[in-house]
Design brief:
Blueprint lengths: L1 E5 H11 L14 E6 L4 E6 L3 E7 L5 E4 L1 E6 H10 L4 E7 L3 E6 L2 E6 L18 E4 H11 L14 E7 L2 E7 L3 E8 L5 E7 H10 L6 E7 L2 E6 L2 E6 L18 E6 H11 L6 E3 L2 E3 L3 E6 L5 E7 L3 E7 L3 E3 L4 E6 H9 L5 E6 L6 E4 L6 E5 L6
Antiparallel strand pairs: 1-5, 1-7, 2-3, 2-6, 3-4, 4-17, 7-8, 8-9, 10-15, 11-12, 11-14, 12-13, 13-28, 15-16, 16-17, 18-24, 18-26, 19-20, 21-22, 21-25, 22-23, 26-27, 27-28
């Protein structure tokens, strides 16, 4: 293999390929990037088994003098290309053992891995595409992924459930203590229901950064493939039936309070500085329990009590309120902060149906989003 390519073009594609590289792997070969130079194109592939990424480079700066293939140590190769500042890069494979990287007056040599040891990556056939706008996918990821479970006890909850039916896309994420639900009208009458690992969606969102066009989705067996630009981005799907969450949202909300989102967010973050934090195996889990009180005069107060550090209390002025009784409710400030950040509008509404029932965050300007949080008992 012997080729020359523009350094910026190579780096851009390597940044995409890096999404499929595992941090750690029981298969050392997967820490490498599979590279193959054909007569006209350069193929690069990465995989951590759950997620596989392939880019096909056909840039005008690419000049392939000799075809070949190799598996190159991924992190080292990417770091080298990031650090060099030359306009073009020359890659030469010596005796299928060493890759020589030349960048102006610099030269690097990387010992390559055995190409035959790299597992065969079967990408989904590119038939029957589902076409979606990239911005829709990016927004759904931003509005739901944070609500997925971080624990593997219920693997299905570590993903986002996406259903498409009758020109409507519904995305749901829950960790059993909160729920994020997004309903988005789309063009095209498809019929699918899949649960995608949140880690794969996070990497997809990073790969889509700056991409504003439409992408295509292809579904086959237990895999979902996204195609955009010169990229094939394939993730495995989670097995099992996603739980029915339709009954979690209360049917009515006798108490509602509207807030300026930024003011509420700032106040909650200030009060939660002193809130007690749960810990699990020496790792801080910032559930940060706080209280919200609606008083008889319709003033609203959020507070927290910490016997080891101190107390915090702050009064918030709503932009509108509908309440005929008092209310005391406790909940995780982290959950509320993350839910608020999923909205882009300036005003949001907290909808309550009692101190022990879940409450919902909504916004008139973004009616397609619902964020639900389960309260904690304040006995």
């Amino acid at each position: 293999m012997n080729l020359t390519i523009d350094r910026d073009v190579l780096l851009e594609n390597l940044n995409t390929i890096s999404r499929g590289l595992p941090q750690k792997s029981p298969m050392p070969i997967l820490t490498g990037i599979r590279m193959e130079a054909t007569s006209n194109d350069l193929f690069m592939t990465s995989s951590n088994i759950d997620l596989s990424v392939q880019v096909i480079i056909s840039d005008k700066s690419l000049e392939i003098k000799e075809q070949g293939k190799a598996v190159i140590p991924g992190r080292f190769f990417i770091d080298i290309i990031r650090k060099v500042s030359s306009k073009s890069i020359t890659l030469t494979l010596i005796e299928d053992k060493v890759l020589v990287i030349k960048a102006d007056r610099a030269e690097y040599k990387l010992h390559v891995m055995d190409y035959v040891d790299y597992p065969t990556i079967e990408f989904v056939a590119l038939t029957n595409p589902i076409t979606l706008e990239a911005n829709i996918i990016k927004n759904i990821i931003r509005q739901t992924c944070f609500a997925t479970s971080q624990l593997e006890k219920k693997p299905i909850l570590t993903g986002v459930n996406i259903g498409i039916k009758q020109n409507m896309l519904t995305a749901i994420a829950t960790d059993s203590y909160r729920l994020s639900k997004v309903i988005q009208p789309i063009n095209g009458d498809y019929n699918i229901n899949v649960t995608i690992p949140s880690k794969s969606l996070d990497e997809l969102s990073k790969s889509l950064d700056g991409f504003e066009d439409c992408l295509e989705m292809y579904l086959d067996n237990n895999c979902l493939l996204f195609r955009f630009k010169n990229v094939l981005f394939q993730t495995r799907l989670l097995d099992g039936n996603y739980p029915d969450t339709s009954r979690i949202i209360p049917p009515s909300f006798p108490i509602t309070a509207k807030f300026n989102k930024a003011e509420l967010l700032d106040a909650v973050e200030r009060v939660s500085l002193l809130s007690p934090r749960d810990k699990e195996k020496d790792r801080e889990i910032t559930y940060s329990i706080i209280k919200l009180v609606i008083k008889q005069d319709n003033t609203i107060e959020i507070s927290t009590e910490n016997t080891q550090v101190g107390d915090a209390k702050e009064e918030i002025i709503p932009t509108g309120i509908n309440c005929s009784d008092t209310l005391l409710i406790g909940f995780s400030s982290r959950y509320l902060v993350e839910a608020l950040r999923s909205f882009t509008c300036q005003e949001i509404t907290l909808n309550f149906s009692g101190s022990i029932n879940p409450f919902v965050i909504s916004a008139d300007a973004e009616p397609n989003i619902r964020q639900l949080i389960l309260p904690v008992r304040m006995d």
